[in-house]
Amino acid sequence: MANHPLNLALRFILELGALGAMGFWGWTQHTGPSRWLWTIILPLLAALLWGTVRVPGDPGYAPVAVHGIVRLLLETVFFGGAVWLLIAAGQSGWAIALLVATLIHYALSCDRILWMLRQ
Prior knowledge:
Elements: H1 5-29, H2 33-52, E1 53-54, E2 64-65, H3 68-88, H4 92-108, H5 110-117
């Protein structure tokens, strides 16, 4: 089920939402020049790390190959961090929505999670 087109679309939307949450936090929690840096650099670095680290055998090119558990930890920090940043920015409703949608995605992706844990 992890590679079902609807689940992959949900994952893509979640990734964009998490990056948007990071940028939103940077914009709302900082002032002056640091506002621009946090708003742009944090999501950019997160996206760079997200697209660089992969498990061998996972779809796509793996510039940096890691074990499945490392990738799962990265995904947990990525989405969990986005939820936390939304809460820190005073957007608990959006944080709950992102958390619930992420949990739904991972429930639908249990085959991928089990596969990554066996790597």
